[in-house]
Task: structure prediction
Amino acid sequence: MTEPSERPGVYHDIRDDYDDEFGRGQSPREVARRRLFGPAVAFVVIGVVCVLGALVGIVAVVNDFMSTLPGPAHGPQTVLFLGLLFLGACLFLLVICGGICLVSLRRYRLCLVSAYIVTGLSLAGPYGILFFPFGIWALILLYRPDVREEFRRPAPVDD
Result:
């Protein structure tokens, strides 16, 4: 058998091993999908954590309502808290759906709404600042013309 250096037309540069991305698609759709993968995972994680937090809050409000003596002012306050927690859980279910749609490059408007919800978490308190960069990251990517174009194209059959 001949040595690789003896074969004609074969170059053995050190860069040959490092200059191409093996196994990665180079289509514009795959490039957009790789760019959006980080915010998509963050949206799903943020959504799950916040939905679980809302469920814990609902349990806490119901437990507080059951453990105290019912008073005339206690009922409306409990209903308000439960309504706000339910609204938060619904919003974060939208964030989870938006994260899934980011990866599949579908439903551009839902992805935008999810990004704005996550970005708006900076108003939610000191822990919201942990989620804020992921919303900004997604908004920057979603407003790029090449990424927006990939949302407009129909999904391939094998997708």
In short: The mean pLDDT is 83. The chain has one domain: 29-152.
